[in-house]
Amino acid sequence: MDDVIARLQEHAPFDQLQLVRLKKKKLMLKDNMNKLESRLLPDIIA
Fold this sequence. Notes:
Elements: H1 2-10, H2 16-40
């Protein structure tokens, strides 16, 4: 995903809307991965 965003920014003029959508999708994927990881790790009460 990072590579796609970087390549899009290299070639001017680039589609700003497409760039924003890709960045939002990347953030959504990161959030989903973090949620899944937190489900796998047990809650430790110290």
